[in-house]
From TrEMBL:
Listed Gene3D superfamilies: Cytochrome c-like domain (1.10.760.10)
Annotated Cytochrome c domain residues: 53-152, 198-291
InterPro entries membership: Cyt_c-like_dom, Cyt_c-like_dom_sf, Cytochrome_c-type_DH
Signal peptide extent: none
Protein's recorded name: C-type cytochrome
Taxonomic placement: Bacteria, Pseudomonadati, Bacteroidota, Chitinophagia, Chitinophagales
Membrane-crossing segments per the record: 12-31
């Protein structure tokens, strides 16, 4: 009796293990089809001026778009997630130093990466949030490229990125935005330049940077970062509906909200939003409050 039960228990456990292996094999296979998909996109070429005003505009964009969180303040690249289950992820070294951008990287390659989320072989980059930059005007994206190209070389070779088993499953289920190229409208025609004014339209243009966490409808909810803090509703239906423009600016500059909450930079990156100009924050407020 007893040995027989053991035998059946053994068979059940073996069965379960094989089932798990099969399921993981399917995830692994689907993951590799996402990574190996090749995109036939037409990268529209635009002029990239190298004058100091353009480079300064690019420096501001590099700060307010949070590029430094993943690529480092010196653009030399930085590890931003190292977890055996989720994976090892590092923003690329964007400079011309050792371990930096590929040799012969052209303006078209910069645009392919930032507007289409693609590497030079037309396969998707991993985790680079290009879907947040794909609609930037020609003026703004060119300024970013000009700024990046003008920075001094940094010699820093980062270990290759690696998606762990949990990372693969979450990516295939669409729980983490690992494949930027899939989220982009590759035929989108960007405007030449957005007038910098305190209008709802300009606020909407800037608000794309908030959608990664607050979601495209700004209603918040579950964090896109596994285990991250719940994201607030920042439409007029949330606390923001009761705030003045001044209170909004203070919250985004210091993390202190009128309700007395101190936002932590690791949850809500206010050291990044602190770098927006007054005009930009007022435009953002006008737009969010209209929702
Ligand atoms: C959430 C982190 C994150 C942010 C924010 C981010 N990047 Fe990236 N970026 C990455 C990662 C990771 C890679 C490497 C992807 C890969 O190799 O698959 C990358 C790759 C790139 C590449 C391609 C480099 C190459 O060698 O192919 C460029 C160009 C780039 N980023 C520019 C920017 C700029 C400019 C910004 C801000 C406007 C920015 N990134 C913001 C994570 C980020
Ligand atoms: C990396 C994710 C992330 C990004 C990007 C982000 N937020 Fe947040 N934000 C959060 C989280 C998480 C909270 C809630 C924090 C808490 O409750 O402690 C929050 C809270 C807020 C709050 C406070 C709301 C309240 O009711 O107290 C405001 C205002 C806000 N965000 C505005 C913005 C704006 C505007 C942008 C874009 C410029 C933005 N956030 C970008 C994650 C993010």
């Amino acid at each position: 009796m007893f040995p027989k039960m053991l035998k059946w228990a053994g068979i059940a456990i073996l069965g379960l293990i094989s089932l798990l292996l099969i399921v993981f094999g399917v995830f692994y296979y689907v993951y590799s089809t996402h990574v190996n998909k090749s995109y036939a996109v037409e990268v529209r070429s635009i002029p990239v001026p190298g004058d100091s005003a353009t480079i300064a505009a690019g420096a501001h964009l590099y700060a307010i778009k949070g590029c430094g969180d993943c690529h480092g303040a010196d653009l030399g690249g930085k590890v931003f997630l190292d977890d055996p289950a989720v994976g090892f992820f590092a923003g690329a070294n964007l400079t011309g130093g050792q371990g930096g951008r590929p040799t012969g990287y052209t303006d078209t390659d910069w645009l392919r990466a930032m507007r289409h989320g693609l590497r030079t072989d037309n396969k998707t980059l991993l985790l680079m949030p290009s879907y947040e930059y794909a609609k930037l005007s020609d003026h703004d994206i060119a300024a970013l490229v000009a700024f990046c190209k003008a920075q001094p070389a940094v010699d820093r070779t980062l270990p290759p990125m690696k998606t762990g088993p949990v990372g693969k499953v979450l990516a295939v289920l669409g729980k983490v935005p690992l494949f930027p190229a899939e989220k982009i409208d590759h035929g989108y025609q960007q405007p030449d330049k957005m007038p910098v004014t305190v209008t709802k339209e300009y606020g909407e243009y800037l608000s794309v940077s908030c959608t990664g966490c607050h979601n495209p409808r700004f209603t918040g909810g579950e964090s896109p970062i596994p285990g991250g803090k719940r994201v607030s509703n920042i439409t007029a239906a949330g606390n923001l509906g009761k705030w003045t423009a001044g209170e909004f600016i203070t919250a985004l500059r210091t993390g202190k909200t009128p309700e007395g909450l101190q936002l932590k930079n690791k949850d809500m990156p206010w050291s990044m939003t602190a770098q927006y100009t007054d005009e930009e924050l007022q435009a953002l407020f006008l737009y969010l409050k209209s929702l």
